[in-house]
Design brief:
The complex is a heterodimer of chains A (61) and B (498). Chain A is mainly alpha-helical and 61 residues long. Chain A has two helices and no strands. Chain B has a domain of 334 residues: Hydantoin permease, CATH 1.10.4160.10. The interface between A and B is large, with 42 and 55 residues.
Chain lengths: 61, 498
C-alpha cells in the first residue's frame, strides 16, 4: 500500500515536471548560439582540415 | 506543509539526477569546474595507449601526431553536434535523446549499444591497469613473474570496488572525485609524456618507422586519422549523461572538445611515440628498465587514476541509461544499478581477461562502425526535421499516443538508415581486415574521404530521404504539427509506460 502511494506521488511529481518544462522555457537549458556553432565548426572542422593539409604539405609530399 | 513540499522537491531532484527524469537548470550543479573535471578525468585514459599504438603501425611521429589530433577533434565535432545540444536543452541523457530517431521502444537499441560499449571500455581500462601494475611490480623485482596473473586480477577487482564506492555517491560524488582525479591525472600524464620523450630521445622517436605501413602514405595518413575519428565517436554514450548537468551549450562546448576530444589524441601520443621507439605502446615497463621502479610506479599511478576516472563516468552514464528501462526506474536502487553496470566487468576481469583482450581491436572497430551512423541519424533528425524542438512528454510515453511511437514503438527508417551506414562503412574500410572495397578506377575512395565522414554524410542522406518521403507522408513520428498533442499530465511514468 505504501509502495503504491509512493508510486502515485512520484507519478504526480513527474507529470508536474514535464508540464513545467513544456510550458516554461526557463526550465530548459540554453540552445547553442551562433557563436557556439562557429566555435564548434572552427575547432572541430576548420582547424583539423588545416592541420591535415598542412601536415601533408610539410611531411607527406 | 512547506517541509513536505521541500521534501517532494528534493525527491524529484534526486530522481532526476540519479535517474532518467529530465534535469531542470536549477538542479544542474556541476558548474564549469565540475564539467571540466568530469570531462578531463573521463577523457584521459590509458586506452589512448592502444589507440596511439595502432597509429604507430602506419605513421611516423610527425604525421601521426597531426593525424591523431585532427582525427580526435573531428570525431568529437560529430558527437558534440549530435548529442550535446539536446541533452543540455532538455536535461536528458543519451538514451532519451535517441527516442525521436529510433522510437520509444526502439531506444532499447541505444541502451544495448551504450551498455555493451561502456562495459567493454571499462573492461579494457580495468584489465589494462591490473596488468600494468603487475608487470611493473614484476619488472621491478617486487613480485615473481609467476604471480603477475593473480596480482593483475586482484588489482582489477580492487579497482572495480573503488569505482563502485565512488559511483554510489551519485552525481555529486562523481563531480567531486573527478576534479581531483583530473588534476592529478593531468600532472601525471604530463610527467609520463615528458619522461618518455627525454628518455627515448626526440631523434629516436622521429626516426621510428611504422611496422605495418601499406606503402601508400596517403592511405596510411587517412588510416591514422580514421582510427582517432572512429574511436572518439564512441564518446557518444557518455556525452548525454555528462552534458545534461550543464546549463548551456556555451558552458559545455570547450570541456567536450578539449577534454574529451583533444585529450584522447594528446594522451594517445604517448602510445604513438612509445610504439615507434620501443614497439610497445605502454611505456611503463621501459620506464622501470631505464629509470627504475619509481618511474614505473608513477606511470602506473597515472594509468590507475586515469582509468578509474574514466570508468566511474562511464558507469554513471550507463546507470542513467539503465534507468530508462521501466522496471529499473523505481524498482532498482542506485546501488543495485551500479552493481549491474560493474558486475559484468568484474566477471570478465576475473575470468576472461585473456580472451577479451585478445579481441580488443575487433571490439573497438565494431563500435566505431555503429556510432558514425547513429550520430548522422541524430544530427539530421534534430536539426533538419525537429528544428531543435522535442516533445518532452512523448520521450517518456511508450504507448501509441506518444509522438515517437512510429511502428509499434520502433522507427524502422532510423534502423534502416543505421544499417545502410554500417554497410557503407564496411565498404569503405572493413573494420576487421582493413580492406578497402570501394575503389573507383585506381582511386581508393577511403583515402580521400575517410570512412566515418563519408558514412555520416551517406547515412544522413538516407535518413533524410526516407523520413521526407516515407515517414512524414505516413504521419508517423510526430513530424506533422497536426499530430495529436499529448498533454503532459497524460504522460505519467509507471511500470508500463516509463
Amino acid at each position: 500500500m505504501a509502495a503504491r502511494d509512493q508510486d502515485e506521488e512520484l507519478r504526480g511529481l513527474f507529470a508536474e515536471r514535464l508540464a513545467l518544462i513544456e510550458r516554461d522555457p526557463n526550465y530548459e537549458g540554453a540552445d547553442p548560439t551562433s557563436r557556439d556553432q562557429m566555435v564548434l565548426a572552427l575547432v572541430g572542422l576548420v582547424i583539423p582540415a588545416l592541420l591535415m593539409v598542412g601536415g601533408w604539405v610539410l611531411y607527406g609530399g | 506543509m512547506a517541509a513536505s513540499a521541500s521534501g517532494q522537491e528534493m525527491s524529484a531532484a534526486h530522481l532526476a539526477v540519479e535517474g532518467s527524469w529530465p534535469v531542470v537548470p536549477k538542479e544542474r550543479n556541476w558548474g564549469i569546474v565540475g564539467l571540466f573535471g568530469v570531462t578531463l578525468s573521463a577523457g584521459i585514459a590509458a586506452w589512448s595507449y592502444s589507440i596511439g599504438g595502432a597509429v604507430s603501425w602506419y605513421l611516423t611521429a610527425a604525421l601521426g601526431t597531426i593525424a591523431m589530433i585532427a582525427g580526435a577533434l573531428v570525431g568529437m565535432y560529430f558527437v558534440t553536434l549530435a548529442a550535446m545540444p539536446v541533452s543540455v536543452k532538455y536535461g536528458i541523457d543519451t538514451i532519451a535523446a535517441s527516442k525521436p530517431q529510433y522510437g520509444s521502444r526502439g531506444s532499447a537499441f541505444s541502451i544495448l549499444v551504450q551498455y555493451a560499449s561502456i562495459i567493454g571500455w571499462n573492461c579494457i581500462l580495468i584489465i589494462l591497469f591490473g596488468r600494468a601494475t603487475a608487470n611493473v611490480l614484476a619488472a621491478g623485482g617486487v613480485i615473481g613473474e609467476d604471480l603477475t596473473s593473480i596480482v593483475s586480477i586482484i588489482v582489477s577487482l580492487i579497482t572495480i570496488a573503488i569505482a563502485y564506492v565512488m559511483v554510489i555517491g551519485g552525481a555529486d560524488s562523481i563531480r567531486n572525485n573527478s576534479v581531483w582525479i583530473a588534476m592529478s591525472v593531468a600532472i601525471a600524464g604530463g610527467i609520463v609524456l615528458v619522461v618518455l620523450i627525454t628518455q627515448t630521445g626526440v631523434d629516436t622517436i622521429a626516426a621510428g618507422q611504422p611496422a605495418f605501413a601499406t606503402g601508400n602514405l596517403h592511405l596510411d595518413y587517412m588510416l591514422g586519422f580514421e582510427i582517432l575519428v572512429a574511436t572518439v565517436l564512441s564518446w557518444w554514450p557518455y556525452v548525454g549523461g555528462i552534458m545534461r548537468m550543464s546549463k548551456s551549450v556555451s558552458q559545455a562546448l570547450l570541456p567536450a572538445m578539449i577534454c574529451l576530444g583533444l585529450m584522447t589524441g594528446l594522451i594517445g601520443l604517448i602510445g604513438l611515440y612509445a610504439g615507434l621507439a620501443t614497439g610497445e605502446p605502454d611505456p611503463s615497463i621501459s620506464f622501470v628498465q631505464v629509470t627504475g621502479l619509481w618511474m614505473g610506479l608513477v606511470a602506473v599511478v597515472f594509468i590507475g587514476l586515469a582509468n578509474v576516472g574514466t570508468a566511474i563516468v562511464g558507469v554513471y552514464a550507463t546507470m542513467i541509461g539503465l534507468k530508462q528501462i521501466p522496471a529499473f526506474q523505481y524498482r532498482l536502487s542506485w546501488r543495485w544499478t551500479a552493481a549491474i553496470a560493474l558486475g559484468p566487468v568484474a566477471i570478465i576481469a576475473a575470468l576472461f581477461s585473456g580472451p577479451f583482450m585478445d579481441n580488443i581491436l575487433t571490439f573497438m572497430y565494431l563500435l566505431g562502425v555503429i556510432f558514425a551512423p547513429i550520430c548522422a541519424v541524430q544530427i539530421v533528425d534534430y536539426y533538419l526535421f525537429r528544428r531543435q524542438r522535442l516533445h518532452l512528454p512523448s520521450l517518456y510515453d511508450y504507448s501509441s499516443r506518444g509522438r515517437y511511437y512510429f511502428w509499434g514503438g520502433f522507427n524502422l527508417v532510423g534502423f534502416a538508415a543505421t544499417v545502410a551506414g554500417m554497410l557503407c562503412y564496411w565498404f569503405l574500410l572493413d573494420p576487421v581486415t582493413y580492406e578497402n572495397r570501394l575503389v573507383i578506377g585506381d582511386v581508393i575512395v577511403f583515402q580521400w574521404t575517410s570512412a566515418s565522414i563519408l558514412t555520416i554524410v551517406f547515412t544522413g542522406a538516407v535518413y533524410w530521404l526516407l523520413t521526407r518521403f516515407v515517414v512524414i507522408p505516413l504521419r508517423k513520428g510526430g513530424y506533422v504539427e497536426a499530430e495529436p498533442v499529448l498533454a503532459p499530465a497524460e504522460a505519467v511514468p509507471g511500470p508500463s509506460n516509463i
